[in-house]
Specification:
- With 79 residues, the chain is mainly α.
- The chain has 3 helices and 2 strands, in the order H-H-E-E-H.
- It has a two-stranded antiparallel ribbon with strand order 1-2.
């Protein structure tokens, strides 16, 4: 699953480089009668990035970061 998450990150990087949609960006058409196409495009990318980040924290988070911190020694100086 870790490789799937990395694949999603790469796909997001590629589709965020949206130079090939030049005519799409110039279109005055509205989606649902009120939302510009470009705003909907970026809202979709933002939702996909949030879902990808959620999947990354569930499946690709390093296991060594899950360990609780160690306790300071009993007689040590407090800071």
């Amino acid at each position: 699953m870790r490789y799937v998450v990395w694949g999603l990150v790469i796909v997001l990087l590629v589709i965020h480089q949206d130079d090939w949609f030049f005519n799409f960006w110039r279109s005055p058409d509205l989606v649902f009668g009120f939302m510009p196409q470009t705003l909907l495009y970026h809202a979709g990318i933002s939702l996909a990035a949030g879902i990808t980040w959620y999947l990354a924290t569930i499946y690709a988070w390093p296991k060594q970061l899950q360990q609780p911190p160690t306790e300071p020694p009993e007689g040590g100086a407090s800071q």
